[in-house]
Design brief:
This protein is α+β, with helices and mostly antiparallel strands. The chain has helices at 15-78, 83-90, 93-112, 118-149, 153-165, 172-176, 178-195, 204-239, 340-362, 366-385, 390-409, 414-419; strands at residues 260-270, 275-284, 287-294, 297-305, 310-314, 323-327, 332-336.
Amino acid sequence: NNENEGSSINVIISPTHLRKKKKHKRSKSKDKHKKIEKAEGKKELRNKLIQEMLNSEKAHVLALDRVVDNYLNPIKETNILPTLTINEMFSNLELIRNWNKTFLSALETYLDCGDTFGHVFLEMIPLMRQLYTQYNENYEHAMQTYENAKKIPAFTNFLQTQGKEINETKNLLTYLYLPVQRMIAYDSLIKDILSLTPENHEDFLALNDAYQSLRDIQYHAEQRALQRKNIDKVIEIQNNLLIDEDTNTTIQLALPHRRYVYEGEVFRILGSGYGIKERYCFLFNDLFLCCKVKRKKFEIDFKEPLETLKVEEVPNTLEMKYIFRLTSSANEYLLSTPDKAHWIAFINQYKKELKLEKEEIANIPHNAIEESSRESLINKIIAWSKMNDAEQVLFEVQEYAAVLEKYKTINITPHTYNHGIL
């Protein structure tokens, strides 16, 4: 209409559209409030967990004080146990207590300034790794030492008397578990706190690194404990081997590189009318050992290096089932056991690992092995000379020896043996 040219245009909006628009605004506002409430709720829960960690750390330090002051020190002073037994039972508990006291002090300082503490964990973790790994590795042996010590009347009387005097509800065994228990608690608490920490929070990266480091420590400690247990098993087998009456010697099983794998009863099938004989066999990562059982001890029947041993299934006969054959460079053995599948699988698995190790070393130029080993050893010796912890030095020497022993026992080339690794 020409009359309306230049005048304003009236837009008619339906009431339904207005209602939807208002409802949408209210919904967006409500969602925003929910997000804020959720964030505030997470922050509040995070702060509660941080406070729980601080409070539990204080309680942990007090508990460590009690075990040192009420048990370790009095036992030392009264000489009711030999020094070696005390060391085996309590391990490095005092050093762990000192670490926890230092950590608690640093944690309190950090939290007085805010809600960030990831960096204090990262700073303290290197020493924690060393202390906890050593304690965890010795823990099973410590428990056995404790049980053996309870057979000593003076020690048993001390535990009973001390428990009454200090009105103690926990026993010493519970206290000895404290360091192991605390590492589990750290893992759980840091994991939960990290899950409530926004990625843009100033402490997120440090906490994430600390959590990963804690997991690495636990894994490393568990592996070391298993390794220690495995070495103890090899030594136990070694100690149960009978001395050869002709040579007055026995095989040296306990070598740094050697690991126990499997064991069990088998029948050895002998030819030329000798029939079937009961045997007990052990499998190591580089050796197969077959023994006769005599007076709960083991007399070696035969032994073969795994690297040159071939294993294969043999069809059942009317007389025998579950047969497998071992063939070495010079001998052949027929064995029978319902467990033959495990024996065959393990032998093949560790033969393969030996082959891979040999190939890896063979691919490294000889001069590179020699020079890197020399340089590494020199650096190690310098580092050891600066360490105050004799036990840690011994442990690292033994670990390094295991590496060198592996090079020594794998026959790369005559050239390598002529020049040596070091």
